[in-house]
Amino acid sequence: MNIFIINLPDATERREFQQKQLTELGLNFEIINATSINDISEDTYKKHYYDWQRPLQKTEVACYFSHQKLWTKIAEGNQPALILEDDVALSKYTPNILKELEKRTNLEMVNLEVFEKKKTIAKISQTIGNHQLFCLYQDKAGAAAYVLYPKGAKKLLQHQQKHGIALADAHLHNCPSLQSYQIEPACAVQSMFCQKYGIEQYDIVNTSCIEYKKSKEKRSFIFRVKRIVGQVKLGFRQLSFVAKSDKRYIEVRIDDFKR
């Protein structure tokens, strides 16, 4: 399976961390230069200014296009790929999970990471190695480690054509046609959450590929409407799977991350 790591050229410590980590796991990978704010023209930023439920920062737009570049690459091929942000720690079982996922051609997206928020997953799972694979109905955040299949990549790009762009993780987890799954125990943890889960703290910057800053700008009427519409749609979606799902935290096995 192809493995793509999104990395800004000047983030050398993160790149070296990932090179060391994936080499130790025996995985081949490709470093993909992340889109930077310098690559986002003012025209592009203005074009997408009203796409999401609030104004997107340029760093967020750049992060989105870093992921979108890989969605396009995957959609044009016939093989799934693992997409990683450059500050994620991987479990020692990741290679085995990837081998199993490569055999499954009926999937669209599989999330490998854990996040600090609860996820809504199916009550029933499939066994994959010594892990479980759950249908993922709702995920609030996170785009640091996921396996994307060509069919899923095409759906994400189609969703962009209809609705514009968003935060990378919001676009990933709010595409209603995308059939998503979750690995448990999680195989990936972003560095910023390692300490929370009792995993050895990795000596890299504890942020993802973008930095979030709270905007002081007052939200216009159109953003308030978009927010309300989004919440209403989410409410209807939740009703459709409430009987067959659980909302809970995803398990993490600390020993899985010990080398």
UniProtKB/TrEMBL annotation:
Residues 2-165 form the Glycosyl transferase family domain. CDD domains: Glyco_transf_25. Keywords: Transferase. The keyword Transferase applies. The keyword Transferase applies. GO terms for molecular function: transferase activity. This is Glycosyl transferase family 25. The lineage of its organism: Bacteria, Pseudomonadati, Pseudomonadota, Gammaproteobacteria, sulfur-oxidizing symbionts.
